[in-house]
């Protein structure tokens, strides 16, 4: 599983459209849930990653798939804020190291590593050595340029580390010192293959902090020297000749037809080889159709024009019950990530009534008490989900089942909490604040997912039952990004953030100064005492190696977030993936932590 800290986007935005769900009583929900999914799980296969070696495969074949939108760019720097584009470009890149979730340890990817600590000076250095025979190459070209430490050092110092670029990785390059100042993690070239990351103090997860993907310095450096950050931004735009994009990853991008398809060809120079000396990318070609409608993806799969498909909740019965001999459905194991509900506390909106509500913890706690997770599980996920009451997932080393959300579905508790801050129902049953303002606000969701709309309509219905109006507002993905990271013109939102396997993931989300600190980003100083405490604990935990001591820190950290409710987690769904049976599954694995591992998949022998 690739965990790249320096470019953590954490913006898998997750919203939808659809019909309003009819209300069910708690008794009906309990009965439905008891019988939901009956026989479904038994009809699926299970193959989670448990560590070990991969099998040598057979070369050849095409992998057919789809993406939901055209790439906005083929420039790695620009793609930091566009998850779709970043996923496409990542096929041509590689990370320095990788984390094995089964063995719970780091291992080399593009580079070997050694961590050196000096307890007397309280300093730490990560020594990296690039693998031999790493090259930037181009499709159908004999040109080969060695990957060198210049590529990493330039990207870290001159792209992510240049404040004029406003990179999401910039803040991650600094650590807080015991005296309250900040100091930078330096990246230093030793020779063409060796480079060091020098930390001004010992930290808990140095490999997580330094892992990164990078681009060829000989291209990006020249562009910067000529025209600064604007020159870099102009590289590899969406209309470029994609065959001019070099690769040191598993794939070349060889064709892009807007609105139609993206084509990849395997990179024969990729470093990872099997026991027979073959590149472990066994498939020759990947073809991704660009489809804007999720229903089209399912149709493509049923027609054999897609190799895998992850069904929406309403499709699960159909996909599983019709698998027969053509495909197999796998279920995921382990805890999944969960979407969340958050409220805008940016003082830019301080003149609006909702600001005075959202900045009170009792209001947020009341909204959590109006969130009927059991109804969502039953009506939206057909019983195939679990409520999310913890902050850390169970795979996080500091997960503690005893630390959980206490503000669970209870309308009476919600009304009591609201009453504490002067919000009560009038004679007509409408909730109003002390100034007489009606409690009415927007819930922004993406227009691309029926699941999120189903959940939003349930939230709106439960709130309406005690006199609160929730207006579900649908916007497209790019508009959502703009609202959350630029204009801040939103009120409440459903959004999904990546699962934090390590507590120090998300430094641009949870500390108050982060550019993705959802409810009020890029605070110059913490806006509240509890956020100041979160900043302190996040910082202390980041530099604490002793597990027992660190656990005390992270216990308080997650307890504060669960008490203050700046984000309210919804539910974690059970995930399924259908895979065409023409593929050998020796190297295929599927679970909630790693997703679908298809990098080394190959065609099955045809008898």
Overall pLDDT: 91
The level of helicity is: 25-40%
Strand line-up across the major sheet: 23-22-24-18-25
Radius of gyration: 25 Å
What does it look like?
A hairpin with a 3-residue loop joins strand 29 and strand 30. With 607 residues, this protein is an alpha+beta fold. The chain is built from 15 helices and 31 strands. It is globular, with a radius of gyration of 25 Å. The relative contact order is 0.17. The strands form eleven sheets. It has a five-stranded mixed β-sheet with strand order 23-22-24-18-25. A four-stranded mixed β-sheet has the order 1-17-27-16. Mean pLDDT is 91; it is low at 4-30 and 32-36.
Summarize the structure.
The protein is of the alpha+beta class. Helices cover 26% and strands 22% of the residues.
Topology:
Layout: H1 26-35, E1 45-46, E2 62-67, H2 83-89, E3 97-100, E4 105-108, E5 111-118, E6 123-130, E7 135-137, E8 144-146, H3 149-160, E9 174-176, E10 182-184, E11 186-189, E12 194-199, H4 206-210, H5 217-233, E13 251-257, E14 261-266, E15 285-290, H6 294-302, E16 308-309, H7 316-321, E17 327-331, E18 339-343, H8 353-358, H9 361-369, H10 373-379, E19 385-387, H11 411-420, E20 424-425, E21 431-432, E22 440-446, H12 450-464, E23 469-475, H13 477-487, E24 492-496, H14 529-542, H15 547-564, E25 567-569, E26 571-573, E27 576-580, E28 583-584, E29 589-591, E30 595-597, E31 602-603
Parallel strand pairs: 1-17, 2-15, 22-23, 22-24
Antiparallel strand pairs: 3-4, 5-6, 6-12, 7-8, 9-10, 11-12, 13-14, 14-15, 16-27, 17-27, 18-24, 18-25, 19-26, 20-21, 28-31, 29-30
Helix pairs in contact: 1-10, 3-5, 9-11, 14-15
């Amino acid at each position: 599983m690739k965990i790249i800290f320096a470019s953590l986007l954490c913006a898998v935005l997750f919203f939808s459209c659809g019909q309003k769900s009819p209300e069910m009583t708690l008794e009906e929900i309990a009965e439905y849930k008891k019988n939901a999914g009956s026989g479904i799980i038994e009809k699926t296969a299970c193959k989670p990653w448990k560590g070990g070696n991969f099998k040598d495969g057979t070369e050849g074949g095409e992998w057919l798939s789809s993406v939901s939108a055209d790439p906005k760019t083929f420039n790695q720097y620009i793609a930091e804020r566009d998850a779709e584009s970043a996923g496409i470009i990542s096929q041509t890149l590689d990370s320095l190291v990788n984390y094995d979730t089964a063995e719970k340890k780091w291992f080399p990817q593009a580079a070997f590593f050694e961590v050196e600590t000096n307890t007397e000076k309280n300093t730490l250095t990560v020594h990296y050595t690039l693998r031999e025979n790493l090259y930037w190459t181009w499709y159908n070209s004999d040109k080969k340029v060695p990957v060198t430490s210049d590529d990493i050092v330039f990207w870290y110092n001159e792209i992510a580390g240049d404040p004029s670029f406003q990179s999401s990785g910039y803040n991650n390059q600094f650590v807080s010192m015991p005296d309250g100042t900040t100091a930078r993690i330096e990246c230093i070239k030793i020779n063409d293959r060796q480079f060091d990351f020098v930390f001004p103090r010992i930290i808990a997860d140095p490999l997580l902090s330094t892992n990164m993907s990078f681009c060829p310095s000989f291209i990006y450096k020249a562009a910067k020297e000529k025209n600064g950050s604007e020159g870099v931004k102009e590289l590899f735009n969406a209309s470029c000749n994609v065959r001019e994009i070099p690769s040191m990853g598993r794939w070349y991008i060889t064709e892009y037809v807007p609105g139609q398809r993206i084509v990849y060809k395997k990179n024969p120079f990729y470093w990872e080889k099997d026991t027979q000396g073959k590149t472990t990318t066994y498939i020759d070609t990947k073809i991704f159709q660009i489809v804007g409608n999720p229903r089209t993806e399912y149709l493509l799969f049923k027609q054999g024009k897609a190799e895998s498909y992850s069904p929406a909740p309403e499709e699960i019965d159909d996909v599983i019950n019709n698998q027969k001999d053509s495909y197999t459905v796998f279920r995921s194991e382990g805890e999944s990530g969960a979407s969340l509900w958050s409220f805008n506390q940016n003082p830019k909106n301080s003149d609006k009534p909702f600001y005075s509500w959202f900045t009170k913890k009792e209001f947020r706690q009341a909204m959590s008490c109006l969130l009927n997770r059991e109804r969502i599980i039953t009506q939206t996920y057909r019983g195939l989900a679990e409520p999310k009451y913890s902050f850390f997932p169970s795979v996080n080393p500091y997960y503690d089942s005893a630390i959980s959300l206490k503000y669970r579905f209870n309308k009476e508790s919600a009304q009591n909490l609201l009453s504490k801050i002067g919000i009560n129902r009038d004679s007509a049953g409408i909730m109003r604040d002390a100034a007489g303002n009606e409690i009415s606000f927007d819930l922004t969701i993406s227009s691309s997912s029926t699941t999120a709309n189903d959940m939003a309509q349930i939230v709106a219905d439960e709130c309406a039952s005690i006199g609160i109006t929730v207006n579900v507002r649908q916007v497209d993905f790019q508009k959502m990004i703009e609202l959350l990271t630029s204009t801040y013109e939103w009120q409440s939102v459903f959004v999904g953030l990546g699962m934090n396997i390590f507590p120090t993931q998300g430094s641009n989300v949870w500390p108050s100064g982060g550019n993705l600190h959802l409810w009020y980003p890029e605070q110059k100083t913490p806006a509240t005492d509890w956020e100041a405490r979160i900043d302190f604990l996040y910082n202390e935990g980041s530099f604490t190696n002793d597990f027992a001591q660190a656990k005390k820190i992270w216990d308080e950290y997650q307890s504060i977030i669960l008490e203050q409710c700046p984000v309210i987690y919804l539910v974690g769904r059970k995930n399924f993936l259908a895979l065409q049976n023409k593929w050998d599954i020796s190297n295929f694995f599927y679970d909630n932590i790693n997703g679908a591992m298809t990098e080394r998949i190959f065609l099955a022998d045809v008898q």
